[in-house]
Design brief:
Number of strands: 34
Shape: globular
Strand order of the largest sheet: 5-4-16-15-14-6-7
Bound molecules: iron/sulfur cluster
Number of helices: 29
Strand content: 15-25%
Radius of gyration: 27 Å
């Protein structure tokens, strides 16, 4: 067995350390790195399954021009010449790069240097714009710099942890588990969750404030007033380290408890309880995430939160501070190198002094002197024909951008589109004129920065397949062919990092927050995780001294007024988009791990029971969502965890995994005026039942071709695929459709049973003792056990069992495990319920009996719910 390679998880902004050990059989064993300060050995379900996402299926292995294989030289020359010609004919603003928080810092650095330094345009933006741009803008307004003051340890030291707009238990599971563990140790610790939905994060909350969408600003503006009234402000800190308190308080004065309650939809009592908690707990950390950032008022929300921490002096000290948690693994690294169109490099802006400094450092006479187009503006400029050459790196805007159908149309109309990606067939890559194969996680070398400013290494432990190359190499080659070879001499990621370090310290001397100069000459290979600024050593916390990066070193209160209440047009619902526990972004990686699809295998809409009843939408039926931008067809999940008047749909499903699950097609491209971040949690949609005449569920060895099905969602299963189906219009010839969809050869005999009374029908094909596929059809949602059916793909099946399989009946000796709850150990809901009935009355007892919930812990809230339900049923 080879030695483990220390690397970093490529998913969320927690930035967990990973030990990856390639095995002789080609598999890779994954474990949490016990020495990494972010996770101390823990991994969540996604991180644990990384080894199952490394297959080369679907990888882009060679450069392609016009869909045909090409050599690297031809592809690079074409990209360079088309960019050169476009710039010569239309100017530098006619070209753009759209990058990703999935890029490593070194990739980002060279892409930014090429565009801003040498093309002379700042039209380089990133999908991080969709994730945390409002936090950047809020930080800069308050601190004069984009600085996260605290660290993860503060979440364990706090007496009060406030989670705002964050389903931390699913979206940042390891961080959530750190808080849960701290709460178990420190019984006086309290958690408040502020979220319109009762997510699984609410499970550990002492107080859940199910706030109205975008009610956060009013809540925190009112908090500022209440802190004064409760005599909980810190006059010394306000007087010595801040400006603008009076103006912020003037706005807040009008926000009485009653007015806050009305604006937020909360009771006066709950608001008062929250305000009392905040006032009483000096050690308070306010963690916020996409529910704050992804709003047309996101920056104001951020500043409303920061104002309360400044007013109490609770910042930069152990267990205190506002804390923005980023979604992506390297959103922070992208910010550091200037991956956002409105930042230059090394956290510098487009002020004349900074532009001149970077110009001299890069020797870039042609450097851009003004910000470029932010993501939404950028795709609108493409649609308007202003941008004529576009390079998309490691991201999938055809699915993730608001008004995603319009974005796809813009990309289709763009005269020249390059996509560099690991995968051949994302919804974006298929639209490109040139596709460049990029190396993936485990193959690349570089650094990432997590949400607590900690720079960690990603190290390779696999050889990149085919002709795939690191992104920094691809950009460097294009830059050289564009005539900028002298400025792009790089032969390794190490050289790029060294230049990045040098720029961060160039003419800095403590004047700028981002400074890695202490790493000058450091051994890149053995670089340990370290928090910036790194001057002599890393820095755990910032601003504890009351000094900020504004011209007078004082923090700024920002007087923010809550926005007018949201008016939902009659008959419409507020669409909230977000993540599920076991998938990541557009599923290009997590979609390959069957156990990650076992938890939630299809796109869904969470609806409140009253809304569902009003609209005649039944649980598990299909719901159609539509507005002026697009439509989506998803499964109805009726639950009182959802707030009335809102509907939640996950963002992950693409055209590769579903017929019509691309929810961002419905999101209006409305942005925050400060940050340019789109309001991805605030679209208005009409929801109604989609009257399917027939529902279906299939397990198959190969991915079926599902043309003609109005609804389908296909997910990898162990040994094949599992597919949910529905037909609003039925095929004229069912058997012909089935043969085409499942690739049944002429003459092959399909086993079929049909029950005229119930309208149920099943078809299956067996080859020897193996099931090729089984399809279950019914006029209502199919009730067959998914886990049992999926398991058939791994079994030898005797002729005797075929009838039971067609009937969808697990044998008596094969109890149905039920829907998977614990993805780490493949434990289903029925198994947990059975253990609860047999005497396991706690999550811990279930863990001992079944192991469920004992790895990442992300499923513990669901386990607790099943145990509790069982207890209530037993008591009746
Ligand atoms: S919490 Fe999970 S997804 Fe996030 S970095 Fe850690 S292992 Fe990866």
């Amino acid at each position: 067995m080879s030695q483990p390679t220390k690397t970093t998880c490529p998913y969320c902004g927690v930035g967990c350390g990973v030990l990856a050990t390639p095995q002789a059989d080609g598999t890779v064993t994954i474990a949490g790195d016990p020495e990494h300060p972010a996770n101390l050995g823990r991994l969540c379900s996604k991180g644990s399954a990384l080894g199952e996402t490394l297959s080369h299926d679907g990888r882009l292995l060679h450069p392609e021009i016009g869909g045909r294989r090409a050599g690297w030289d031809d592809a690079l020359e074409l990209v360079a010449s088309r960019f050169r010609e476009t710039i010569a004919e239309h100017g530098p603003e006619a070209v753009a790069i759209y990058g990703s928080g999935q890029l490593l810092t070194e990739d980002y650095y060279v892409a930014n240097k090429l565009m801003k330094g040498f093309v002379g345009s700042a039209n380089i933006d990133t999908n991080s714009r969709l994730c945390m741009a409002s936090s950047v803008a809020g930080h800069k307004r308050a601190f004069g710099s984009d600085t996260v003051p605290g660290n993860y340890e503060d979440l364990e030291l706090a007496d009060l942890v406030i989670l705002v707009g964050s389903n931390l238990s699913w979206c940042h599971p390891v961080l959530y588990q750190r808080i849960v563990a701290a709460k178990a140790r420190r019984t006086n610790m309290k958690i408040v969750l502020i979220d319109p939905r009762r997510t699984t994060t609410a499970d550990q909350a002492d107080l859940h404030l199910a706030i109205k969408p975008d009610g956060d600003t009013a809540l925190f503006v009112g908090l500022l007033k209440s802190l004064v009234e409760r005599n909980a402000v810190d006059p010394e800190f306000i007087g010595g380290s801040t400006n603008g308190f009076g103006a912020a308080l003037d706005v807040a004065r009008e926000w009485t408890l009653e007015r806050v309650a009305e604006a937020t939809g909360l009771s006066v009592r709950d608001v008062a309880v929250f305000y009392d908690l905040f006032a009483a707990n000096t050690r308070t950390v306010t963690v916020y995430s996409q529910g704050v950032n992804q709003s047309a008022t996101g920056t104001d929300k951020v500043n409303a939160i920061i104002n309360c921490h400044l007013a109490t002096g609770r910042i930069g000290l152990p267990g205190m501070g506002p804390f923005s948690v980023t979604g992506q693994p390297n959103a922070m690294g992208g910010r550091e190198v200037g991956g956002l169109a409105n930042m230059l490099a090394a956290h510098m802006d487009f002020d004349p002094v900074s532009v001149d400094r970077v110009r001299r450092f890069w020797r870039a006479e042609n450097i851009a002197e003004a910000p470029g187009l932010k993501a939404v503006e950028l795709f609108k400029a493409i649609a308007a024909g202003k941008i004529k050459a576009l390079w998309i790196m490691a991201t999938n805007p055809v699915d993730s951008m608001p008004e995603a159908d319009a974005v796809r149309a813009a990309i289709r109309a763009c005269p020249f589109v390059v996509v560099s990606d690991m995968n051949a067939a994302t919804d974006t890559a298929v639209e490109a004129h040139v596709r460049l194969p990029a190396a993936g996680w485990g193959e690349k070398d570089g650094t990432v920065t997590n949400s607590e400013r900690r720079v960690s290494r990603q190290r390779p432990f696999l050889v990149a397949p085919g002709e795939a190359k690191p992104d920094w190499w691809i950009v460097t080659q294009v830059a050289r062919r564009m005539g900028f070879g002298e400025a792009f001499p790089y032969e390794s990621a190490n050289e790029i990092f060294a230049e990045h370090v040098a720029l961060s310290g160039f003419e800095n001397a403590g004047a700028r927050d981002f400074d890695l100069s202490g790493l000058t000459g450091a051994d890149y290979d053995t670089l340990q995780p370290v928090q910036w600024p790194v001057r002599l050593a890393g820095t755990a916390r910032m601003f504890g001294s009351g000094q900020f990066y504004t011209p007078d070193a004082r923090a700024r209160f920002v007087p923010v007024a809550p926005p007018p209440p949201i008016v939902t047009p009659p008959g419409m619902l507020v669409l909230n988009t977000g993540r599920v526990r076991d998938h990541w972004h557009t599923m290009t990686r997590t979609g390959k791990a069957s156990r990650l699809s076992a938890h939630m295998a299809e796109p869904f809409a969470e609806l409140h029971p009253d809304d569902a009843a009003d609209k005649s939408i039944r649980h598990a039926s299909l719901v159609k969502l539509e507005n002026q931008h697009g439509t989506a067809l998803v499964r109805a999940l009726v639950t009182d965890r959802q707030q009335r008047g809102s509907v939640f749909v996950p963002m992950h499903w693409t055209g590769q995994f579903s017929a019509a699950g691309r929810v961002d097609a419905l999101v209006t491209a409305q942005t925050d005026p400060q940050s340019g971040q789109p309001a991805l949690k605030m679209a208005m949609v009409v929801a109604g039942p989609a009257l399917a005449r027939r529902y279906g569920f299939a397990v198959s060895r190969r991915k079926p071709k599902l043309d003609g099905a109005d609804y389908w969602a296909a997910a990898e299963a162990d040994g094949g695929w599992r597919t949910e189906l529905a037909f609003i219009t039925e095929p004229a010839d069912w058997e012909a459709w089935v043969r085409e969809a499942f690739g049944v050869e002429d003459g092959a005999y399909l086993l079929t049973i049909r029950d005229k009374a119930s309208g149920r029908e099943s078809l299956a094909l067996f080859v020897g003792e193996e099931l090729e596929f089984a399809l279950y059809l019914a006029p209502d949602p199919v009730l067959v056990s998914r886990q049992w059916a999926v398991g058939l793909l791994r079994e030898k099946i005797s002729a005797r069992r075929r009838a039971d399989i067609l009937a969808g009946r697990p044998g008596g000796d094969r109890p149905d495990p039920g829907p998977i709850v614990c993805a780490c150990f493949g434990v289903g809901a029925n198994q947990i319920a059975a253990a609860a009935r047999a005497g396991c009355h706690s999550v811990e007892a279930i863990g001992v009996a079944l192991k469920a919930g004992t790895n990442c812990g992300s499923c513990r809230a669901e386990i607790r719910g099943i145990v509790e339900l069982n207890r209530l049923e037993a008591a009746e």
